[in-house]
Amino acid sequence: MIEFNKVSYSYDKNSGNAVDELSMSIEQNEWIALIGHNGSGKSTLAKLMNGLLLPTSGTISVDGLSLSEDTYWEIRKKVGMVFQNPENQFVGTTVMDDVAFGLENLGVPREEMVKRVSAALKEVDMYSFKDQAPNRLSGGQKQRVAIAGILAIMPEVIIFDEASTMLDPNGKQELLETIKGLRKTKKMTIVYITHDLSEAAYADRIIVMNEGRQWMSGKPREVFQYQNELSEIGLEIPLISSIYAGMNEHGVKLEKEPLHMKELVDQLWKLSSKM
Amino acid sequence: MNQSFIIGQYVPKESPVHALDARTKLVIVFFYVLVTFSAETLSSYLILFLFAAFGAVMSRVHPLFIVKGLRPIWFIIILTFILHLFIQRQGEVLFSIFGYAIYDQAVIQAAIISSRLFLLILMTTLLTLTTTPISITDAVETLLKPLKSLKLPIHELALMMSISLRFIPTLIEETDKISKAQASRGIDFRTGKWRDRLKAIFALLIPLFISAFKRAEDLAMAMEARGYRGDYGRTKFRELKFTSLDLIVFLIFIIIVIGFFYFNG
């Protein structure tokens, strides 16, 4: 779906590359978690994916379309993006107006727009809020409206650029549930950028970024085994994984490494019933 | 923010005036204002007043709201009345106060000017009470569309207006937060010399501006990511509908204007 070929990007000629000779590919319908500490180049990577930035060198292609100044409008139709601050990406005066904003930009006829706006709002379960002003919504709700705004455009990829960072725990859960729901009903590639490893655990594959390069890539279970290495590049292992590692050290073996609290609890119960 | 916050003074109601197309209301208010400035006779004023009163009644907005809308300008109306009373020195002397003569022409002039003011404000208040700011923005955009051929950035102006409306509550909330944060650091906004208070305001304004710029930057990025490229190939979601009701109101207004000029001599 998205191919990076030796992509470099620097914000400033004198400073180093924010993204450095990066090659990678993201498959269709894959849920990727992109993790890395601040300044690892993960947000730059996201902005390169939908042409908000153009690479200094190397090539990027999305759905077979090579990214350039002539194609980024096309690519933005394929790649939607949810940003960090829920407040600052809300353009419309009401929920409906905001969802329609992207469609207005694409010149979709009005009758079609009305249909797509309602469908997208139902998808994220925000239809009953359609006439509300943004200041009446919680952070999580605003992010769901932002997702609806992107769904209405019917893209192939949605990038979440630290979309959960400014949300409270409930909002985070709301956001993750919405993404999970989408994955059930739609074919959609998800790129989820975060520095919270427990959120990354939900992905099909984790890509760890460090100093503008791909540092590691693999299934959450595989990646979480490199605890010490991850802490060295400034990534905090989720509590569940460190419990698992600690138990291992003391000779208590679980069947497999748990990813979520529920898995851990289930396995602990099993273990205690065996004892 | 807990208290309900309504931008402008829009009062949601289901009335024929609310149902009117914002363009209709805007055009009528515009021409009403023009016509009012040429009013000279008593009967022409009466006609104008009847039209405004009819509008006010049909809007089903509680009269208290209208009076509230007029509140800031009562003072100006009364002041104009009194000034005209003393400054005009034409016609016959009616009576005198503290040895200062009041002329009959002055009384008439004062009455004319202050009722003119009153009618203007009444009509514009009626417009803002019955129309959401966003519909007014849309109406302005469509009405000024012809000016696009003169390379005037009408779409951009309208977008700026609607984004400002969208961010007013956000910025109010932010102001509230910053002023509390600064007050907790010992800045005093409420007491002291006006000069110190003015200085204290800077502690509020500077963070507010910085964050507003940050917001603007984020918003621009988000808009671009969603394919915003100015007016190019854009359609509109919000729709202004011109119905038969609008036609009827226009006809009534034209009759009123004809009647006005007939009685105005």
UniProtKB/TrEMBL annotation, chain A:
Entry's Gene Ontology cellular component terms: ATP-binding cassette (ABC) transporter complex
Hydrolase as UniProt keyword: no
Keywords, alphabetical: ATP-binding, Cell membrane, Membrane, Nucleotide-binding, Translocase, Transport
Subcellular location: Cell membrane
Domain annotation ABC transporter: ranges: 2-236
This protein's record includes keyword Ligase: no
SMART domains membership: AAA
InterPro entries found in the cross-reference section: AAA+_ATPase (IPR003593), ABC_transporter-like_ATP-bd (IPR003439), ABC_transporter-like_CS (IPR017871), ABC_transpr_CbiO/EcfA_su (IPR015856), ECF_ABC_transporter_ATP-bd (IPR050095), EcfA_1 (IPR030947), P-loop_NTPase (IPR027417)
GO molecular-function term, one example from the UniProt record: cobalt ion transmembrane transporter activity
Topology relative to the membrane: Peripheral membrane protein
UniProt family annotation: Belongs to the ABC transporter superfamily.
Full protein name: Energy-coupling factor ABC transporter ATP-binding protein
Annotated organism of origin: Allobacillus saliphilus
Automatic annotation (TrEMBL), chain B:
GO CC field: plasma membrane
Key word Transmembrane present: yes
Ranges that cross the membrane: 29-57, 69-87, 93-112, 117-136, 198-216, 244-263
Topology class, membrane: Multi-pass membrane protein
Keywords recorded for this protein, A-Z: Membrane, Transmembrane, Transmembrane helix
Principal localisation: membrane
Location(s), subcellular: Membrane
Name the record gives this protein: Energy-coupling factor transporter transmembrane protein EcfT
Organism: Allobacillus saliphilus
